[in-house]
Amino acid sequence: MDTADNERINGGEKYPAGISMSDGSTVYKDTKDLYLDELYNTEEDNREIEKVKKNIMTKRDKRVISLLWVLNAAVFAFLGIYLALSGSADEYEPIKEEARFEAEEGYQGYYDSTEIFADTLAPKYSETEYPEGIIEGLKPLYSENSDTVGWLRIEGMNVDHVLLQTENNDDYLRTTFHGDYYVGGSIFMDYRNKVSKKRGGLSKNTILYGHYLMNQRGMFSDLDKYMDVEYYKEHPVIELTTLYNSYQWKIIGCFLGAINEEDDNGLFYFWYDKFSDENTMGFANEVAFRSYFINPAVDVQPTDKFLTLSTCSHLLDIGGMVNARCVIVARLVRDGESAEVDVSQAYKNTNQRMPQLWYDLKGIENPYAHYAIWDAYA
After folding, report:
1. Does residue 305 surpass a pLDDT of 90?
2. Is the pLDDT of residue 179 over 80?
3. pLDDT of residue 89
4. Mean pLDDT (the chain, rounded)
5. Secondary structure of 93-141 in HEC code, one letter for each residue
6. How far apart are alpha carbons 85 and 263 in whole angstroms?
7. All residues at 6 or more sequence positions from 341 whose CB lies less than 8 Å from its CB, including other chains
8. Contact 332, 249 (CB under 8 A)
9. Quick one: average pLDDT of 223-249?
């Protein structure tokens, strides 16, 4: 999509209405459609159709041409719907093909900026004013969208995304990196978190949000696989590159979290980002208490920092209402520490604490209802 298209959409003047059959370009109109599910003939389309009609020699030829137009329309209609539902997620594919970590002091950098979007981003790349100290490989993304704050990746999983951040947690719920509407939105960092040039200059808890897309892959749809300890053993490390530094994180737990105090008499506020070092062990213990698995080989210290990934879970839905989150928590690999994880000690947690709503739906008593609630600021 070119700059003019973006201005039409972002300015609220025109909205995508369909696809031109003559050249495949997007056609716009004044009202917004959720999906590109119609074809609109432009004046150029009509001229082309008239040319075809003049050259038709027989009724049989006319029938063939008509059939081809019907097939053409069907193909473009399908593509329009497909792109609106899932294709926008694939806009990152050109990045993913090149997005592989480079070896420099063991773990630095992300990808070669000269190979990514070389043709389409060259003008913006040279004109953009970059933050001092930005990783060279992230410049093409930043030049395209200055909300870029990094990149998230989990080896061997369908988690390989650019990270965005604005002054709220709403802007990218249904918006792609390029500003288009998409039901899956983007992966974004909590607006309260800070990205610092200083190595390790991170919030106590860096929180990332992404949608769970039912019956699809993409965004955070794979996170619920961590409910299986065997899956965790295959993917125990998260890679996060901010604008200025690259980090690795060892996963310490996956749990089901309630999002409403009315649904949980011991609500765990896993989205707090500024709790003290003194209260760190309480946070870590709460994660382990609720996690589907436990790995004693990954310890936690009071000065550790955390990375939290949150997505919707439909396990506690009532009447179509999403009442829970699937949450992954990892702690930062310390300076001088190996990122290797001994997963041989990991085991399934058979006594995990679930949200109150889970017990209510099953009609059983919550054995942990009387337990103290973790206080982020105690």
Report:
1. yes
2. yes
3. 42
4. 75
5. HHHHHHCCCECCCCCECCCCHHHCCCCCCHHHHHHCCCCCCCCHHHHHH
6. 31
7. 236, 237, 250, 295, 297, 298
8. yes
9. 94
pLDDT at 128: 85
Which residues are CB-contacts of 243 (< 8 A; sequence separation ≥ 6)? 131, 133, 134, 135, 138, 142, 148, 149, 150, 195
| Residue reference for tokens 């953009």 | 128
- When pLDDT is averaged across residues 123-127 and rounded to a whole number, the result is 68
b or e along 248-261 (b: 16 or more beta carbons within 10 Å of the residue's beta carbon)? Answer: bbbbbbbbbbbbee
Residue 318 is classified by DSSP as B
Q: Tokens in use for 34?
A: 């959720």
Of 144, 100, 153, 87, residue with least CA distance to 118: 144
Rounded to the nearest 5 percent, the helix, strand and coil shares of the chain are 30, 20, 50
- CA 20 to CA 43: how far, in whole Å? 10
Give the up-direction half-sphere exposure of residue 347: CA atoms within 13 A in the CB hemisphere.
5
d(CA 17, CA 8): 12
Instruction: Give the strand pairing for 148-154 and 237-242.
Output: antiparallel
- 352 has pLDDT over 90: yes
Distance CA 177, CA 168 (A): 16
Report the candidate in 256, 235, 259, 257 with the shortest Cα–Cα distance to residue 330. 235
Distance CA 313, CA 185 (A): 16
Q: Among 207, 237, 210, 206, which Cα is nearest to 221's?
A: 210
pLDDT given for residue 346 in this prediction? 95
Could you report how far apart the first and last alpha carbons of the chain are, in Å?
50
Which residues touch 93 (CB under 8 Å, ≥6 apart)? none
Angle between helices 43-55 and 59-85 (to 10 degrees): 150
pLDDT tens, position by position, 83-101? 343 444 444 544 443 333 3
- The owner of tokens 């920092």 is 305
Alpha carbon dihedral 79, 83, 86, 89, in 10-degree steps, equals: 140
Q: Which residues contact 200 (CB under 8 A, 6 or more apart)?
A: 245, 305, 332, 335
* Burial class of residue 322 in the structure, from the number of CB atoms within 10 Å of its CB (0-12 exposed, 13-18 middle, 19+ buried): middle
